[in-house]
Write a structure and sequence with these properties.
Number of strands: 18
Membrane topology: Peripheral membrane protein
Number of domains: 2
Strand order of the largest sheet: 6-7-8-3-9-10
Strand content: 15-25%
Mean pLDDT: 88
Shape: globular
GO molecular function: ATP binding; ATP hydrolysis activity
Distance between the termini: 51 Å
Low-confidence stretches: 465-480
Largest sheet: 6 strands, mixed
Subcellular location: Cell inner membrane
Pfam families: ABC_tran
CATH class of the largest domain: Alpha Beta
Number of helices: 15
Structural class: alpha/beta
Keywords: ATP-binding, Cell membrane, Membrane, Nucleotide-binding, Transport
CATH architecture of the largest domain: 3-Layer(aba) Sandwich
Helix content: 25-40%
Radius of gyration: 22 Å
Amino acid sequence: MTLLRAENITVSEGDTPILHPVSLHLDPGEPLVVLGETGSGKSLLAQAIMGTLPKDLSPKGRVVLGDRLLDAARPAGFRPLWGREIAVLPQEPWLSLDPLMRAGAQVSEAHRLVRGLGAAEARAQAQEDLARLGLSGAEDRYPHQLSGGMAQRVAIAAARAGGARIVIADEPTKGLDAARRDEVADLLLAELAHGGGLLVITHDLALARRIGGRIIILREGKVVEAGVTRSVMAAPAKEYSRELIAADPETWAVRRKPPAFAAVLTATGLAAERGGNQLFSDISFDLSEGRILGVTGPSGCGKSTLGDVVLGLVRPAAGRVERAPGLPPTAFQKLYQDPVAAFPRHRTLGRTLADVARHHGQTQCQIDALMPRLGLAPVLLSRKPGAVSGGELQRLALLRLLLVRPKFIFADEPTSRLDPITQKQVIGLLTETAEGEGCAIMLVSHDAALVGATVDHVLSLAAPQKHTELNAPIVAGALQ
């Protein structure tokens, strides 16, 4: 028996269609993957099926859920089913978590209010859920005390707590290392053993392969190819599908290491703590103009904290950071892992970028020149942050940063929301900025292949209180 059937789902902005008719079905025990580049309409499709589209977008089509027939144009009819029949794992955990509630309370609340468990049973179940996702001991932390990957896992636990048979997972492993990615994928797949339905929205080729089942590939709001995931990934029939799969970082050429110039900053004996626990200690390195330092390690090991220490946003527990003399504070910039939290929600993106350009002596011409280099359409400038995809917003965050013409960039998972094609384009622009502008870059990524092909040195953070010294260059694309 089909759990869910979506028929001729479309989404329009005014008179402009942005998602063309898409039909799909979910059967018990068989996952469905929707794969595509950033801005292809993947999340719009999920939101239309859930009835959660922004008010300025107009959906059409119908959704059959069990014995219920729902009109996509009337999203209020979907609300009674949220959490109970169908649940969504959101792409932006920071927006889905209550900043004033501890992690454990947010998960137990769903068990109590949606599933109807008693308070004690709900708390115990929440602890078990978090432990299964590698978050033992995190139940007393607030969202701002969690790394991006940890926040994503808390959001997953909270979304699943209602017991819905159908789960729509929108980029569920964004920001997670490979081990955590596979754990989350296996956790989602485990629900299928009980006759559940799973729809995974992703640009991650490795996740698509891990999930398996059937696949739909979207581009510019249209279905390009559909079929069995294993068959399509192994032998795609369409040119775009082949291009998308071939853009995997595993196929990238290794970047040639540039000569060393003057140091932009020097870190000596750095250590940091969080919640009384030491994240890392005794980290020292020099980073010169034009060089890229890769920072790797599992979620929660302190990668983002290291960047905040280097930028002076967090005081180190030990050690010091020295910057090259003569550089203004604005020369040191951070490209945030979650750009949705870094943009004013109620202003158009064009106005925000114009203000930054004006403040730093740039013009609209510079914005217009960077837009196509980042694969961004001019129409996005007239929208507010909530009306663009996560990947588009991440590239707009990079554009805003480049308007400042920094000498140092801490790029915190800058391609975690991007499909392989766009990811390669953005990393290319970052390396051009390093080499052409003499900018030093610390690049955080969970993708070992991307790091191996891009950076000059690697700093690998492991479990708290352990780290690998910065002393080995990239050799033949492998981390050493």
